[in-house]
UniProtKB/TrEMBL annotation:
Single GO biological process annotation from the record: regulation of DNA-templated transcription
This protein's UniProt keywords: ATP-binding, DNA-binding, Nucleotide-binding
SUPFAM superfamilies: C-terminal effector domain of the bipartite response regulators (SSF46894), P-loop containing nucleoside triphosphate hydrolases (SSF52540), TPR-like (SSF48452)
Domain HTH luxR-type: 868-933
Keyword ATP-binding found: yes
Keyword hit for DNA-binding: yes
Protein's organism: Kineococcus radiotolerans
Protein name per Swiss-Prot or TrEMBL: DNA-binding CsgD family transcriptional regulator
Gene Ontology cellular component list: cytoplasm
Listed GO MF terms: adenylate cyclase activity; ATP binding; DNA binding
InterPro entries, per the entry: AAA_16, P-loop_NTPase, Sig_transdc_resp-reg_C-effctor, TPR-like_helical_dom_sf, Tscrpt_reg_LuxR_C, WH-like_DNA-bd_sf
Superkingdom of the source species: Bacteria
Cited Pfam families: AAA_16 (PF13191), GerE (PF00196)
Length: 943
């Protein structure tokens, strides 16, 4: 192993990162990129030594090409390396138990690594990340973020790989930690000279100097040339390569030259070893080549003497992986495949895990180039890949799907297993939430099917990904055609296929105008499924029933089949049931189910994790626990960023966040979330689009742009009509707001529409206080009916929805004030403010124009000089005028218009008001305005 030559500048950069991490006590990330053999691993060793000098605890590991399929090996190899590993044995064992539950595993990993970091700075070095397994990359991105404030320094090295692991980790970490990037280039002439002197133990002679000059500062090539160089009269030019030839080629030539000087036994050893991997054991070579190990000793010594291999623990290793690769790539393809086949056979005999055998199976069948093989051989190879996929499917379904796809490619076109393997691949892809890929695979499989029964099977599996993509129409059409293609009559073969097709057809029709027909169909399917004892079809039918009812906005009706699905079939709580309970405002029951689901996630089915985080966020938003909702939505967003599979849910997370920050009056952030959601939106997802229109409207209203608000709300309602969507949606909740804006902006038809929608929803959901109260509220605003509004408030008070209750109470106060029912108005106003403050929203809903109160202009100010410095009495006349209007919900713009000053002046006054009153939000201001000592005079000054 060489001492480090050159690289002064790069080492200084690394030293800065280490010192920075130690000083700031926060994470630093350094990436080291460079061509194969340029000296990344050598550099990393120097960084590790430097870090130890600085008091760091160091863990280092590297990814290996052959272990790409083994989840988390890359990261764990680093955390368990060395005499004093960063992860304790206990932690390691615990993590093993979480192997196939990614999110928890990753959380625990972060916790475990925080332990050594609490005692001092920690450095984790990961080499060859271009080969890291998928789960390690995911874990790295997450753990880096989680430990952002711990003194943990990460150094990751890898070959250039645009969009590869290094880029993905650095990209994700960019916002969280300081990222420094280094690219290693060739060594300078001095470093090359130093390297040569060290290797030779003396001065290089002129011939060697000339040769070294041609290595272009590439250290591996330099050291390979030196290794093959025999000083003295026999010294030949070992690399007669044209100057400028590609480096790997030159290296192959250099290695080939070295091989040509070795006896055949050593060459065979090296060749077999090159297929086994960078490190291998003589026992393996002996098994594969069917030679006694004793006979390998002399060849081994030759190879070591030539500097190609060195001893490594209880095995041997190539001096460098590129040397191994050079030997490997120089093997004739057919020979290489034969060695891979022998190795695979030996490993299978030894019952090694299929995931270890799989690379050698793949090695026999390069992706490109037809390989002559019997169908039997292909089938056997595909079997190994299927087994390997089975081993890793739970931990990394996406990687399993890749393997299955390769197995599919291997199978001869006419082999009967094709459909099975294809469906396994589709299922794995869907479980990894790669729904696009799963759908595409299903479509391809469909084209290859020859019988109606096979097509029916494909449609059955396609239901999940296509519905996740909101491609209900495609599914509906396809299953209808497949049903028509089934032979008539219910013989033993076609009856089950027909049943499942009908189940999928019912599901596909449930979210749309044919809801009633879909429900009818689903009921039929359910009966037949129970008779035929097809539990999966029965469950699909129950889900279809629940979803049809949900689309119709009938929550009671949706709850029954959703609950039955769980009770009858077990497993984690279904989303449909949680959605129904949420719709019915039975939040505690929904929360309990979500908690139960979380327990199940720990052991299974983590792919429903984001869906449930989203449901929890919505639920808490309705219940008015806004900060909890925000935590959930942010968690969801993070999940979507950390786990590619969950990216689907990022749009939902942004929608929820936009609604939350909208209620706080933070229009700018709200808009950012809307934009982000819109960019990620699934175009066919009606619910998402509806939500965005409503959020748009509310943000426009908050910004004082009533016309834009009306336009956005109208779009939402049109969308509902177009898709016959009667299910829950944010426009129902916002019906009173829509009515108010519509009336203000002179759009009575929209007001009428919104109120009618809310009334219809209420009719379909008797006994649900929030839904009933909102409908009453909206109607009361349309009719200006204060008593009906009073009833709305009373109904809402019996339910758990704090936000809608407080908004209604606020409106009631306003209407009462207009009706000059002063005492009641003040009482309602007080309650509204208290509820609002508890809820944490900062928009005050009451519009001063609705209050129809005139400012108490001309009221005498306290005599000069005696005005207190804080409290209401400290305000100047102008400040009071602004405070009163703002406290009753005026926007800066509307107040400016009303008082005939600029919005800038208004905000200046407001700042002063906040300072004198010692408050920092409009909610607090509303409270002060409503409860100040002279509040009783609210209406007295009316002209
Ligand atoms: N700065 C250096 N000083 C001395 N020797 C070096 C230096 N850099 C690299 N080498 C030598 O060059 C060879 C290749 O370097 P190294 O293994 O570090 O490359 P790498 O970039 O990690 O390659 P790979 O991409 O294959 O992992 C090593 O055998 C090492 O001895
Ligand atoms: Mg390396």
């Amino acid at each position: 192993m060489n001492r480090l030559h050159g690289r002064d500048h790069e080492l200084r950069r690394a030293a800065e990162v280490l010192a920075g991490t130690r000083r700031s006590g926060g994470t630093g990330l350094l990436t080291v990129e460079g061509a194969p053999g340029i000296g990344k691993s050598t550099f990393l060793r120097a960084v590790a030594a430097l870090a130890r000098q600085q008091g760091y605890r160091v863990g280092s590991g590297s990814a290996e090409e052959s272990s790409r399929m083994l989840p988390l090996t890359t990261l764990l190899s680093a955390l368990r390396s060395g005499p004093e590993p960063l992860l304790s044995e206990g932690d390691f064992a615990e993590l093993g138990g979480l192997y196939d539950r990614q999110p928890w595993l990753v959380e625990r990993l972060a916790d475990a690594l925080a332990v050594p970091a609490a005692h001092g700075p920690v450095l984790v070095l990961l080499d060859d990340v271009q080969w890291s397994d998928q789960l390690s990359v995911v874990a790295l991105r997450v753990v880096l973020g989680r430990l952002a404030r711990q003194p943990v320094c990460w150094v990751l090295a890898g070959r250039p790989d645009p969009g590869g692991a290094l880029d993905r980790v650095a990209g994700a970490a960019r916002h969280l930690v300081t990222v420094s990037r280094l690219t290693l280039g060739p060594l300078d002439a001095d470093a090359v000279e130093g390297l040569a002197r060290e290797e030779l133990g003396g001065e290089p002679d002129p011939a060697l100097r000339r040769l070294l000059a041609r290595a272009g500062g590439h250290p591996l090539l330099v050291s390979s040339l030196l290794a093959g160089w025999r000083p003295g009269p026999g010294g030949t030019d070992p690399a007669p390569a044209a100057a400028g030839a590609a480096l790997p080629h030159q290296l192959i030539l250099a290695v080939r030259h070295q091989l040509s000087t070795l006896p055949p036994g050593a060459v065979e050893l090296l060749r077999t070893g090159s297929v086994l991997g960078r490190r291998f054991t003589l026992a393996d070579v002996s098994e594969v080549t069917r030679q006694p190990a004793a006979r390998l000793m002399a060849p081994l010594e030759e190879a070591v003497r030539a500097g190609l291999l060195h001893e490594d623990g209880d095995g041997v290793a190539f001096r460098h992986d590129l040397v191994r690769q050079a030997v490997h790539d120089d093997l004739p393809v057919s020979l290489r495949a034969a060695v891979h086949r022998d190795i695979a056979a030996v490993m299978t005999r030894q019952r090694r895990p299929a995931a270890h055998v799989a690379p050698h199976v793949l090695g026999q069948w390069p992706r490109s180039g037809a390989v002559a093989a019997t169908p039997e051989e292909r089938r056997a190879a595909a079997d190994v890949l299927r087994a390997a996929a089975g081993e890793i499917a739970r931990a990394t379904p996406a990687a399993a799907a890749d393997l299955l796809q390769r197995a599919l490619d291997l199978l001869p076109p006419d082999s009967p297993e094709r459909l099975d393997v294809g469906l396994e691949a589709l299922t794995a892809a869907a479980a990894g939430l790669q729904v696009e890929a799963a759908a595409e695979l299903g479509r391809t499989l469909l084209r290859g099917t020859t019988t109606a029964g096979d097509a029916a099977r494909v449609w059955w599996h396609l239901a999940r990904p296509l519905r996740a993509l909101s491609a209900d129409e495609e599914l509906q059409r396809g299953t209808a055609q497949a049903l028509a293609a089934l032979p008539p009559g219910d013989d033993a073969a076609s009856a089950p296929a027909r049943l499942r097709l009908r189940a999928v057809h019912a599901q596909a029709s449930s979210r749309g105008p044919d809801g009633a027909a879909a429900a009818e169909e689903a009921r039929g399917v359910l009966q037949d499924a129970l008779r035929l004892e097809d539990t999966a079809a029965a469950e699909a039918a129950l889900v279809a029933l629940a979803e049809a009812a949900a689309w119709q906005g009938r929550h009671h009706e949706a709850l029954v089949p959703a609950r039955e699905a769980r009770l009858r079939h077990g497993g984690p709580p279904r989303s449909a049931e949680i959605a129904a309970l949420t719709g019915l405002e039975r939040y505690d029951e929904a929360r309990a189910l979500l908690a139960e689901a979380a327990e199940v996630h720990r052991s299974d089915a983590w792919e429903t994790l984001p869906e449930h985080a989203w449901r929890r966020a919505l639920l808490e938003l309705y219940a008015g626990r806004t900060s909890l909702a925000q935590v959930e939505a942010e968690h969801l967003l993070r999940l979507g960023e950390d786990f590619e599979e969950f990216a689907l849910y990022r749009a939902e997370a942004h929608c929820v966040l936009a609604r939350i920050v909208g209620t706080r009056g933070d229009t700018a952030t709200g808009r950012r979330h809307v934009e982000a959601a819109r960019a990620l939106l699934a175009p066919r997802n009606v619910w998402q689009r509806l939500t965005l229109h409503v959020v748009d409207g509310r943000l426009a209203e908050g910004a004082g742009d009533d016309r834009a608000a009306v336009a956005a709300f109208s779009r939402a309602l049109d969308l509902r009509r177009e898709h016959a969507l009667l299910g829950a949606g944010p426009d129902y909740d916002s019906a009173p707001q829509i009515v108010r804006v519509a009336l203000r902006a002179g759009a009575p038809a929209l007001a009428e529409d919104a109120a009618a929608n809310a009334a219809g929803y209420a009719e379909r959901n008797p006994g649900v206080p929030g839904i009933q109260g909102i409908a009453l509220h909206a109607r009361a605003l349309v009719d200006g009916d204060v008593d009906r509004l009073g009833e709305a408030v009373r109904v809402l008070a019996t339910g758990p929805r704090v936000p809608v209750h407080s908004v209604a109470a606020g409106d009631l106060a306003a209407l009462l004030a207009v009706a000059r029912r002063r005492a009641e108005a003040v009482e309602a106003w007080r309650r509204a403010s208290a509820a609002l403050a508890a809820w944490g929203a900062s928009t005050v809903i009451v519009d001063p124009r609705a209050l129809a109160l005139r400012p108490r202009d001309g009221r005498a100010e306290p005599a000069g000089g005696t005005r207190p410095v804080s409290g209401w009495g400290a305000l100047t006349g102008a400040e009071r005028r602004v405070a009163e209007r703002a406290g009753r919900g005026g926007t800066n713009r509307s107040i400016a218009e009303e008082l005939g000053v600029s919005p800038h002046t208004v905000s200046t006054h407001l700042r002063a008001v906040f300072g004198k009153l010692g408050i920092n939000s409009r909610v607090q201001l509303a409270h002060v305005v409503a409860t100040r000592p002279d509040a009783g005079e609210l209406t007295r000054s009316r002209p």
